[in-house]
Amino acid sequence: MSGFIRRLCGMEKPTSYHSKARTPVYPNSDVERFKVPNKKVDWSVTYEYKPVEYTAPSVLKGPTWADPDFLDDLYENIKFNSLDGSVNRKSFTGNYEIVDNKPQNPEGRTGISGRGLLGKWGPNHAADPIVTRWKRDDENNTVTENKTKKKILQFVAIRRKDGDQDWAIPGGMVDAEETVSLTLKREFGEEALNTLEAPQEEKKKLESLLSDLFEKEGKLIYKGYMDDPRNTDNSWMETVAVNFHDESGESAGRLPLNAGDDAGSVRWMDIRKDLNLYANHISLLRQVASNHDASW
Q: How far is the C-alpha of 191 from the C-alpha of 233, rounded, in Å?
């Protein structure tokens, strides 16, 4: 079994027993997953497995960001494990298996086949910008945690509109022919600053503030498979997470947070180990806190 700890980009990531990818009920639906015990997650383990077939109606409608519904005569036109035109079908985990003409989730069984809410067969690539600053009091002094005496780090968090409306790192899908660096900036602007609905003059000001923050070199936190509740046996989330830290509070600290796009609300949130966040975002924040020697 894959019961080991993978070290990637300095972050320890448990790769066995992906749990959020096996939530009993699939997000935004009444579809119940076929139960997969921990010991039966790995594909190499024999199991009388009968996953539920499910692709969300919104995906079956054929939006521009989604692959066609899987038909045998389309298979030869999809280039898995490679750059397929403008679509990146490579996985950070390495080459994934193709079984019955469909890509197989490299982390194991999820209880659902098909694409669920995801548009692409195989890896669906996202980018997660983690924007941080030090927590400060009214006199602009950094605040420390009582027990550890370490400074408290804050990050920009959004409350998702979908599923259980969990708090999360703002982020989203990498568009076709779009660089990850552009996605990081665009998604943060759309979800945390509502740049899509801002008046033109306001949009210019926001663009200037975003440039001040995102033109600095961010620190790569993680790139790889994400334990996401939207994952299925044939479609899964992978991400590149980058930390953009505002040491002085002069750039990120001035951002006028305003929820937009997929966000229900947005706020600065203290980074703590007891946060209940979407997917495995807490693992990303643990690495960020470690990098800054911050309270955890």
A: 29
Residues, the chain, total?
296
Question: d(Cα 83, Cα 78) in Å, to the nearest integer?
Answer: 10
* Under 8 Å between Cβ of 127 and 214: no
Confidence of residue 10 (pLDDT cuts 50, 70, 90): very low
- According to DSSP, the residues that pair with 113 across neighbouring strands are 53
Q: What count of Cα atoms within 13 Å lies in the side-chain half-sphere of residue 290? A: 12
Closest CA to 19 of 101, 110, 83: 110
In which region does residue 177 sit, left (phi positive, over 0), alpha (psi from -120 to 50) or beta (all else)?
left
* pLDDT of residue 5 exceeding 60: no
Q: And the tokens for 95? A: 């080459």
Q: How confident is the model at residue 163 (pLDDT cuts 50, 70, 90)?
A: low
Distance CA 150, CA 148 (A): 5
pLDDT at 286: 95
